[in-house]
Design goal:
Structural class: alpha/beta
CATH topology of the largest domain: Spore Coat Polysaccharide Biosynthesis Protein SpsA, Chain A
Strand content: 25-35%
Number of domains: 2
Shape: elongated
Bound molecules: uridine-diphosphate-N-acetylglucosamine, calcium ion
CATH class of the largest domain: Alpha Beta
CATH architecture of the largest domain: Alpha-Beta Complex
Number of strands: 37
Mean pLDDT: 97
């Protein structure tokens, strides 16, 4: 059985009050419709078509996936019309599942059980009971058999129908060839003058088909985003689910409500994450890694037993096992720290490798640099890697000691075992095992009087 998925994403989303098409607004850093596409992939869909319209080419341009079928619906003439536009792309499919680009949290399990429901009938609907069903299409059932008869839209419903609390989520699965036939028979003689997808239900019933239905586990699975408030509610829900999943995998979250995941986090055992931590992109945290409060980690690999103290920013970097980073450290792209490296407060490292056991504990800038093993970089050391136009490398070999407040003017190399005295400006290579000092000799002027402010009378 080949499964095709049609994702409706042509609507404008007026209430977002935005130039960005609604389905491109991000949830956990990914466009809303991106979440729906991922869900479709997890269902092993053989074909995924996205119907877009408002915002034009912005929507397809936001995705580089080559396997998606993009279908333009230039005018939004209704949900039935929208699905119909995608049907030519579904010709080889057996069944078609209709999803919505602004309903991002539908679970794979729920959709799988809907597909199971549809295994012995050509049409199955995902419905839900709402205390306040206002605005939604109502599921009209036969009072005796409780069989589904049709869906009536809010604007077309009678008073009696308006009191029905079972509503249409919009999500449905249908036999492909029957769906094609039903769609071509749709008319728009209704209150909104639209081609309603929902009208296919009555068509199926008229053919003697028994339309089945199932309900989601969680209401959030069928909630759509219409405004930024709903977007924020779904973001919180998404984060709640992500935190839950991580705790089940064995991560300690000091407060799951103060943790945000915008990407994928892979973890070892006994990871501990303190409050206000933000994880972005692809992040790996090894066994026993501890992340302090207010830390951001983006596309990075943190190996086992690393301690990241509070207020660090780690981006496109790797931290080897046993490292101690922060508080207030910034690892910029290309910081590659080997095992047991210590990086302290107000240290910035960019595009540099630091080998085993080296320490950069205070107030330093290390850029375009390679640092050997067991090196000690004193407080306030700066690699001067940039002349205004070009970047140059600094090479520091094993067992070097760089005194505090040193500038290393690149390109420059400090030989193995060398020592640089505090306050140096190093412009030439330092030979191995030597001491380099480069500062004016101290002179002491006897009885020197410091200028004083005159006291006002
Ligand atoms: C629709 C259902 C209603 C259901 C509700 C759930 C119909 C006729 N009604 O109503 O039974 O309770 O969803 O939210 O289907 N879209 C297009 N192209 C169009 C029209 C819509 O892509 O021409 C997309 C929209 O972007 C939106 C979705 O389809 O994401 C639903 O469209 P909308 O007009 O909001 O339908 P509702 O009136 O909410
Ligand atoms: Ca709607």
């Amino acid at each position: 059985m080949k499964l095709g998925v049609v994702i409706l994403a042509a609507g404008q989303g007026t209430r977002m009050k935005s130039d960005l098409p609604k389905v491109l607004h991000p949830l956990a850093d990914r466009p809303l419709v991106g979440h729906v596409i991922t869900t479709a992939r997890q269902l092993n869909a053989d074909r995924i078509a996205v119907v877009y319209g408002h915002g034009g080419e912005q929507v397809p341009r936001a995705f580089s996936d080559t396997d998606l079928a993009w279908v333009e619906q230039a005018q939004q003439l209704g949900t039935g019309h929208a699905v119909e536009q995608a049907m030519p792309r579904m010709s080889e499919m057996d069944r078609v599942l209709v999803l919505y680009g602004d309903v991002p949290l539908t679970s794979v399990d729920t959709l799988q059980s809907l597909l199971d429901k549809a295994s012995d009938t050509p049409l199955a609907l995902l419905t839900v009971d709402l205390e306040n069903p206002s605005g939604y299409g109502r599921i009209v059932r036969d009072t005796e058999s409780s069989r589904i008869l049709r869906i009536v839209e809010q604007k077309d419903a009678s008073d009696a129908e308006l009191s029905i609390q079972e509503i249409n989520t919009g999500i449905l699965v249908a036999d492909r060839s029957k769906l094609s036939a039903w769609l071509s028979g749709l008319e728009n003689a209704n209150a909104q003058g639209e081609y309603y997808l929902t009208d296919i239900v009555e068509m199926a019933v008229n053919e003697g088909i028994r339309v089945s239905s199932t309900q989601p586990e969680d209401l959030y699975e069928v909630v759509g985003v219409n405004d930024r408030r709903q977007l924020s509610e779904l973001e919180r829900r998404y984060q709640h689910l992500a935190a839950d999943r991580l705790m089940r995998e064995g991560v300690t979250l000091r407060d799951p409500a103060r943790f945000d995941l915008r990407g994928t986090l892979t973890v070892g055992k006994d990871v501990e994450i303190d409050i206000n931590v933000l994880i972005e992109g692809d992040v790996y945290l090894g066994d026993r890694v501890r992340v302090g409060p207010n830390t951001v980690i983006r596309n990075s690999r943190i190996d086992s037993d690393v301690e990241l103290f509070e207020n660090c920013i780690v981006e496109n970097s790797t931290v080897g096992a046993g490292g101690r980073i922060g508080p207030y450290a910034r690892l910029r792209p290309g910081a590659e720290l080997s095992t047991e490296v210590h990086v302290g407060n107000f240290v910035e490292i960019k595009k540099s490798t630091v080998d085993h056991g080296s320490k950069i504990n205070h107030l330093s800038y290390i850029g375009d640099c390679s640092i050997g093993k067991s090196v000690n970089i004193g407080a306030g050391t700066i690699t001067c890697n940039y002349d205004g136009a070009n970047k140059f490398r600094t090479i520091i070999h094993d067992d070097v000691f760089i005194g505090s407040d040193t500038q290393l003017v690149a390109p420059v190399e400090v030989g193995r075992g060398a020592t640089v005295g505090a306050g140096a400006t190093i412009t030439r290579d330092v030979p191995q095992d030597s001491l380099s000092v480069s500062r004016a000799k101290q002179t002491d002027i006897d009885g020197w009087k410091r200028p004083r402010k005159e006291k006002k009378a």
